Amino acid sequence: MPNTFQEKNDDIAQNHYIHTQFMNNSLHREHVCSVAASLGDMHTSCCISICIPAYQEWSVIYNTLEHYTIWQITPDGKPLHPDMFEINILINRPNPTTPIDISMLEEIKRFQTLHPEYHIHTAEVVYDFGIKPKIGQIFKDIVDAVILRNTKRTVSTKAKERIIIRTAGADVEALNPLLLSRTISIFEDQTVIAHRWETHLPPELLRNFPLLDIIQTASIFLLRQYHGPHIINGPFSYLAEAYAIVWGFDGEKYVGEEMDLSERIHAHAKDADGERTFRLDRVSDVLNNPRRQVQSLLQWSGMAGRYQNFWCEDNENAVRNMSQSWRTISNESLPDYCRLNIENLSREISEYYRVYIRIAAGEKMDLSVARERINPLFLRVLELYGIQSYKFRNEETIASHQIEISDMTPMTQKMKDPDFSWRKAFFGESI
Predict the structure, then answer these.
(1) What is the pLDDT of residue 315?
(2) Rounded CA gap, 398 and 353, in Å?
(3) What is the side-by-side order of every strand in the sheet holding 85-93?
(4) Which of 65, 213, 223, 234 has the greatest number of CB atoms lying within 10 Å of its CB?
């Protein structure tokens, strides 16, 4: 069947992907065409397209736009040319009854007015998700719209094949000023189809909130040890062509949509016998806003359960309210259940332990087999902490599984060393 969007001698995977997606889903076609029309044409010099879904993000969106534009430079210190990248914001509402976030629209417009040289595009979509939005569908709509716009560019086939997509959140705290120029440079290697770097939380917060520091580091270590080193705890960059080949975002995903996409792109690269690569490095390019992690600990829901009430209105409002107020946290102001002590550390580690036991047991394993897979990961975590006095309690139900730490003195002694860093110990073996 001929591809409606395919140019003569322009046989790329993106054309086939868009044609098939549109043929099989009229509602998705309607969303994508509407978003693409609102975003407008893609500049012929564009190398990287940043895609940001945004919902009630008035307090953080301006900072995010600043860091993706005026703070981005080339290695020689010059501003990155605005025509080399674009930012596409999908202003989405989960259902028609959700009020429009006028304040966020005003913040975006304010930035566009002050910095008209940058390609900041917006589009609006109103969904009918009911109680729980499908985040995978939101990301799918915006990236598919970008791919549609890319296929219509009057540029070479090679330029269309090598366009880079970066899906990101609206709540960036800070970015490496070389992020975009370095990403473009990395993809000049024609074998690279995806790239992952490091993301961290603000160091000033971690110094004031040591329990958060320890658990956040362990959570990333566990994620990569269990799923693979390519797995990210934030946005990553990939070719639009690779996205199309692996069939894009899974629109049925409520959470974990980027993890799922990265796993499929990584598998595609692995099958290519070196002709395609998923590049990994340890450069810290992103500081994430820590609002969700902080909120989960302060509300005593635990770091491991921070997405348990994802999109529950009260929870999400509390998370958004934490967007700026996390800056006021000091070690002295922390409630007792957020301080670094044996009881709180055991509680937070045990919650992650139960999560991973559930994941492993969910893969058609019984509990004993699941523990054989998961216990070594947590033994390694405790070893890297320097903790030697602990006990695994494995009862009949997953809910009763826990790790009881009885002495964390070696860990606290390590932390007194001014040169000590958890990332050196944990991330040194994550790649």
Answers:
(1) 86
(2) 9
(3) 120-126, 85-93, 48-54, 164-167, 237-239, 192-200, 277-288, 172-175
(4) 65
Contact 296, 209 (CB under 8 A): no
Q: Are 248 and 241 in contact (CB under 8 A)?
A: no
Q: How many Å apart are CA 142 and CA 34, to the nearest integer? A: 10
Tokens of 408: 């964390």
Residues 162 and 355: their CA atoms lie apart, in Å, by: 38
In this prediction, the residues of the chain whose per-residue pLDDT falls under 50 are: 1-8, 429-431
Run of H or E residues at 22: helix 13-24
Distance of CA 324 to the CA centre of its chain: 20
How many C-beta atoms surround the C-beta of residue 376 within 10 A?
Answer: 11
Residue 425 has a pLDDT of 67
Helix pair 342-361, 210-227: axis angle to 10 deg? 20
**Structure tokens belonging to residue 117:** 């040289």
What region does 215 belong to: left with phi over 0, alpha with psi -120 to 50, or beta?
Answer: alpha
pLDDT score, position 213? 93
DSSP state of 133: -
* 105: its two tokens: 């629209």
pLDDT at res. 415:
84
For CA atoms 117, 171, 283, 205, give the dihedral sign: positive
Q: How far apart are CA 259 and CA 262, in angstroms?
A: 5
DSSP 308-352: TTTT-HHHHHHHHHHHHHGGG--TTTS-GGGSSSHHHHHHHHHHH
Helix, strand, coil share of the chain (percent; to 5): 50, 15, 35
237, β-bridge pairs: 166, 195
